[in-house]
Design goal:
This protein is an alpha+beta fold. It is built from nine helices and ten strands. A seven-stranded mixed sheet has the order 2-4-5-1-8-10-9. The chain has a three-stranded antiparallel sheet with strand order 3-6-7.
Length: about 425
């Protein structure tokens, strides 16, 4: 028996656009949220915005598998997340029998849908470029999610059709081994059934505003999955950079510049992880609806964002700590090099002072108009030996003072090394 179904496919992309958060592009202006419209309107800047919405010309639609129904209308939307990610949503309203909807889902998932002889990805790229969105690649990412919505529970046994919709197969189905889950809050009514999986959500017998909220949750979850994969890939790239820096023959200045760039990139990735992956999970603080919040959390668990996000966050913290430690080590080396350079300059200046100052004192004495200076006597006359003894005594005092300070410093360093060895042996035991 043919019924009306709303099929929405959410495609992830690597495209970027500035999130304006304007009222014209708010979700409430494009999707019906019913009693929850005020909550979505109040937190517009924390939800996706609709950058573009294009109606589908039904007569030009072509499908690869689906033949058992009629397409009545549809729309292509471009969502821009607060993290500046772009997600494509394709919504089709069809009259079809429930088992045949599986073919339509397969066509949309595999992008085997054409409109006016244009593939859905190419059409989305053209719409994005017309809106000023930065498109770096024409293909969608592997992350995507589909939703099947019907206002009433189909007369056919929906639980028998669920395996066909989810697995695209008529094989024997054992519910205890399925990846689908059934949120309790959404399945309390006897004429409602909601099943959530990593690639498909089925919503039967729910109000229209619940379906709209589910579309928003799907866009957030798909965008989070895309950004999480990008962050993980960037972390592995940074890890290889760390290994290259450790074996690099470059000087410390070049290594320090590379490490500073790495720590800056890690800080940016940590902020992206918080804004694009971790923050969207907390929907309950924005929308006080048990049904919507439970679906949102269940969808994130089904897609598998939570645990990988924790692993990526832990890897991020470790890499950041390692980067700062490596940067500190390089700065310590540069500091020792500066200290050695200062020491060399101090030794050079001290040597020049030792050589130049005593003759300067003597020549200054003989060049003055003092009564003790006799122009008829030689500089080596015994009456001037007291001057040479005084200058020599000053030199001896300076040398003795330098040797004393050197001995004290060595003794202090030896005591510090001994204390460090005792601490290390105590830690090992």
């Amino acid at each position: 028996m043919a019924r009306e179904f709303h099929i929405t496919t959410v495609y992830g992309t690597t495209w970027r656009a500035e999130h304006a958060g304007t009222e014209a592009g708010s979700l409430a202006a494009h999707l019906p949220f019913g009693p929850l419209a005020s909550y979505y309107g109040t937190s517009t800047d924390q939800f996706p915005e609709v950058r573009a919405a294009r109606p589908i010309e039904v007569e030009t639609a072509q499908f690869h598998r689906w033949r058992g129904g009629r397409l009545t209308c549809g729309q292509l939307r471009l969502f821009v997340l607060p993290s500046e990610q772009v997600v494509v949503g394709l919504t089709l309203q069809v009259d079809s029998a429930l088992p045949e909807v599986a073919d339509l889902l397969a066509d949309c998932h595999d992008q085997q849908v054409r409109f006016a002889d244009t593939e859905v990805a190419a059409w989305a790229v053209a719409v994005a470029q017309s809106c000023g969105i930065q498109v770096d690649q024409a293909e969608f990412t592997p992350e995507r999610h589909q939703l099947v919505f019907a206002a009433d529970l189909p007369t056919d046994d929906p639980k028998e059709a669920v395996p066909r919709l989810s697995y695209r197969s008529d094989l024997d189905y054992r519910p205890e081994f399925s990846h689908l889950t059934y949120p309790a809050e959404l399945n309390r009514h006897r004429h409602a059934m909601v099943a959530v999986g990593p690639y498909l959500s089925i919503l039967f017998g729910q109000p229209e505003y619940v379906a709209s909220c589910a579309v928003v949750s799907a866009t957030q979850a798909v965008a989070s999955a895309v950004r999480l994969r990008e962050i993980r890939h960037a972390l592995y790239h940074i890890l290889r950079e760390f290994q290259a820096v450790e074996h690099s023959p470059d000087d410390t200045r070049s290594r320090r510049l590379v490490l500073e760039g790495i720590t800056g990139e890690l800080t940016r990735l940590e902020l992206d992880l918080s804004v694009a992956v971790e923050t969207p999970v907390d929907l309950g603080m924005l929308v006080p609806s048990p049904r919507v919040v439970e679906y949102h959390l269940q969808l994130y668990r089904s897609i598998g964002v939570g645990k990988p996000a924790e692993n990526v966050s832990r890897m991020l913290r470790r890499l950041e700590a390692t980067g700062r430690a490596a940067l500190t080590a390089v700065e310590s080396v540069e500091r020792r090099v500066d200290e050695d350079r200062h020491l060399r300059w101090a030794v050079a200046v001290g040597f020049i002072s030792v050589v130049a100052i005593p003759p300067s004192l003597i020549l200054a004495f003989f060049g003055g108009s003092a009564a003790e200076v006799d122009a008829t006597r030689s500089m080596l006359h015994p009456s001037y030996w007291w001057l040479y003894l005084m200058v020599g005594l000053i030199i001896l005092i300076a040398v003795g003072l330098g040797l004393t300070l050197y001995a004290i410093q060595r003794r202090r360093n030896a005591a510090q090394r001994a204390a460090w060895r005792v601490t290390q042996s105590a830690a090992r035991t």
